[in-house]
Write a structure and sequence with these properties.
This protein has helices spanning about 20-30, 85-90, 100-115, 120-125, 135-150, 165-170; strands at about 1-5, 10-15, 45-50, 55, 70. The chain is of the alpha+beta class and about 180 residues long. The chain folds into two domains: about 1-75 and about 160-170, Roll (Ubiquitin-like (UB roll)); about 85-150, [2Fe-2S]-binding domain (DNA polymerase, domain 1), CATH 1.10.150. The protein binds FE2/S2 (inorganic) cluster (2 copies). InterPro entries: 2Fe-2S-bd (IPR002888), 2Fe-2S-bd_dom_sf (IPR036884), 2Fe-2S_ferredoxin-like_sf (IPR036010), 2Fe-2S_ferredoxin-type (IPR001041), 2Fe2S_fd_BS (IPR006058), Beta-grasp_dom_sf (IPR012675), Diverse_Oxidoreductases (IPR051452).
Length: about 180
């Protein structure tokens, strides 16, 4: 059993401790925003934040995540108002949507450390693979997200695409809080 906090909620995974965090999030917690790309640490599609740092969840076991704070794309904001989410939409830096959650998490972790990163730092902090070559727009979007984070600019929140993001982050039947019997409503 491995206990941790996922998107602000205490959870325990009754799984083999060597299970990759990626599988626990996707298959047990139903947080499918975190994507499986290569499973080998190369693509970044599985990136989540662990204690504020961007990590590839395919390379982290749930035993290694024990006691830590995990944030997935569903928990980045409840209304898509995170500066990275707003800027990715505003700069049209999203194409397939498969690699985007991992990119957003890597960018969010970067801005936690430095809200005013230069291009070289952005490129270094975003190792994620994007087959459609959206990188120039990504740099612009992350620079813009930094301005929003520093309150030097405002972007209107992107409209929700028909699903309540709060539901996506909380409707996870397999999540169980420690010391509580049964599923969390
Ligand atoms: S699935 Fe984890 S890096 Fe590709
Ligand atoms: S936007 Fe996903 S591969 Fe390029």
């Amino acid at each position: 059993m491995s206990r941790m906090t996922v998107n602000g909620r205490p959870v325990q995974f009754d799984m083999d401790p060597q299970t990759p965090l990626l599988w626990a999030l996707r298959d047990a917690a139903n947080l499918t925003g975190t994507k499986y790309g290569c499973g080998a640490g190369d693509c970044g599609a599985c990136m989540v934040m662990v204690d504020g740092a961007a990590l590839r969840s395919c390379l982290v076991t749930i035993a290694e995540a024990e006691g830590r704070y995990v944030t997935t794309i569903e928990g980045l904001s409840h209304d898509r108002s995170h500066p990275v989410q707003q800027a990715l939409v505003a700069e049209q830096a999203i194409q397939c949507g498969f690699c985007t959650p991992g990119i957003a998490m890597a960018a969010a972790a970067l801005l936690e450390r430095n809200a005013n990163p230069g291009e070289a730092e952005i490129r270094e902090a975003i190792p994620n693979l994007c087959r459609c070559g959206v990188y120039p727009r990504l740099v612009k979007a992350i620079e813009r997200a930094g301005r929003v984070a520093r309150r030097a600019e405002r972007i209107s929140a992107a409209p929700a695409p028909g699903i309540d993001a709060r539901d996506a982050a909380s409707a996870v039947p397999a999540m169980r809080a420690p010391d509580i019997e049964g599923e969390i409503e």
